[in-house]
Amino acid sequence: MRLIDFLLVALVAAAGLATSQVFRAADVTGEGAPRGAGALPTAGPIPRSPLRTPSGVTANAPGAPAWRFIVIHHSGTRRGSAAVFSRARGGPETLPYHYVIGNGTDSGDGEVELTARGLYQCPGPQCGSPEIDRWALGICLVGNFDLEAPSRRQVDAVITLARRLAKAHSIPAGNVVGERELAPDRSSCPGKRFPLDAVRRTLAQ
């Protein structure tokens, strides 16, 4: 086992989570992505750590203000995964999202992947607004939803994940937003065919 693999396994064990329910080391190092049933990668409270990501971005420390928003994105691509996007951007620390939900191309349809930023609970430059980015968890669904709708499994996965995150961080359904609602002049994300209002209504139930 490589040193990075050992350290990641030890970190998860310290958080009291089972590695099979969280991620594989490859998800964080960018060397591959898991295939499987698409189970949520967190089995309990989201791990919070004073560690730093490889880019040196300080994670939200224990006692820091809780996350206030969940921002939903689409990748704008026909295919992809957390590992694919990390490689394209130059490394896992460059991916601005905390979770990626696959569409059946490079990861499973509806498969939820925990990114390095999600593991370390670091804010990311996902909306172009530091005032929002500091408080926002980002979920990116693979696909271009200006051209086609997300799969049923993707919608189910984002609802399940957003509900868990909202409960863990006391985020109201009204604070589950699309990037276009925060930056309408910058983006149509998560796409015109993404059922954002329906997702919010479901979360509010």
Please write out the topology.
Layout: H1 3-14, H2 19-22, H3 25-29, E1 69-74, H4 82-89, E2 99-103, E3 109-114, H5 116-120, H6 130-133, E4 136-141, H7 152-169, E5 176-178, H8 179-182, H9 196-204
Parallel strand pairs: 1-4, 1-5, 2-4
Antiparallel strand pairs: 2-3
Helix pairs in contact: 7-9
Give a quick set of tags describing it:
five-stranded mixed beta sheet; disordered N terminus; Lysozyme-like; 205 residues; alpha/beta
What report would you give on this structure?
With 205 residues, the protein is an alpha/beta fold. The chain has a domain at 64-204: Lysozyme-like (3-Layer(aba) Sandwich), CATH 3.40.80. Helices cover 34% and strands 13% of the residues. The chain has a five-stranded mixed sheet with strand order 3-2-4-1-5. A hairpin with a 5-residue loop joins strand 2 (99-103) and strand 3. Helix 7 (152-169) packs across helix 9. The longest helix is centred in the C-terminal third of the chain and has 18 residues, at 152-169. The model is unreliable at 1-59 (pLDDT under 50).
